[in-house]
Design a protein that fits this description.
226 residues; binds cytidine-5'-diphosphate
């Protein structure tokens, strides 16, 4: 359709990006792309080979040699690393603790950003990450910068932990704050709000309220795109 748009959703960890992006895509009949999953897949591959997150040259060789694929499914996406389904394996704490440092390397970002732009070459994409509105899809018709207080984001993540993953809430909050800082301060494509992004604070909102707000904004942009 001529009125299809692209939606970019950025923000810090636990703001609700992937949850709401998935639902918005479902409602619009769009494809959801979780770019964080791609950085996580590279990190998983590095961990398995014993590559440390500071080993720039080894990481460069690694991203050049691995194959990452996102397969859209009804309720989200499947992540394939060399055709192995790693959708769950990329969510472990070992990956989470290292992903931000792995994502700071230029070679890693160049390869993944190329893939992300390619995925969005047709309109009708909802993409979430840290640099989608600023770097990956600066032409996206709708840009959302989703935020929430670090306490609330930590609590949300805490409630998602499985029995065998329990760590103190305080520690989780510290880890999220550290990752925010590292994502905001890296040299290449740091987490930042695009000038033309709409800032949504989800601290006091339910998932459905955030989804409804983004759907309203999307429909306005779609009408403009016609
Ligand atoms: O889901 P969560 O917020 O924990 O993180 P994610 O979206 O899976 O992203 C994991 C990490 O990948 C982030 O902390 C960033 O370091 C990196 N990332 C990035 O650098 N650029 C993106 N577009 C997406 C993720
Ligand atoms: O992708 P991102 O790291 O930004 O956040 P997420 O993985 O979607 O995680 C957010 C968590 O907070 C999920 O467990 C959601 O159910 C919950 N939540 C939300 O996303 N939005 C709200 N307004 C309230 C709760």
């Amino acid at each position: 359709d001529s009125d299809r748009i692209n939606v970019a959703i950025d923000g810090p960890a636990g703001a609700g990006k992937s949850t709401v992006a998935r639902k918005v895509a479902e409602k619009l009949g769009y494809i959801y792309v979780d770019t964080g999953a791609m950085y996580r897949a590279v990190t998983l591959a590095a961990n398995r080979l014993g590559i440390e997150p500071h080993e720039s040259d080894r990481l460069k060789k690694l991203v050049e040699s691995i194959h990452i694929r996102l397969k859209p499914v009804v309720d989200g996406q499947i992540v394939l690393l060399n055709e192995e389904d790693v959708t769950n394996a990329i969510r472990t704490r070992e990956v989470t603790l290292r992903v931000s440092q792995v994502a700071s390397h230029e070679a890693v970002r160049m390869k993944l950003v190329d893939m992300q732009r390619e995925l969005a070459s047709l309109k009708g994409i909802v993409m979430d990450g840290r640099d989608i509105g600023t770097q990956v899809l600066p032409q996206a018709e709708l840009k959302i910068f989703l935020i929430a207080s670090v306490q609330i984001r930590a609590l949300r993540r805490y409630q998602e932990l499985k029995e065998n993953e329990r760590i103190p809430l305080q520690q989780l909050e510290q880890e999220i704050a550290d990752r925010d800082r590292s994502d905001e301060q890296r040299e290449i494509s740091p987490l930042s709000c695009a000038k033309d992004a709409i800032v949504l604070d989800s601290s006091e909102l339910t998932i459905d309220q955030v989804v409804a707000l983004i759907l309203d904004l999307s429909r306005t942009k779609m009408a403009e795109a016609k």
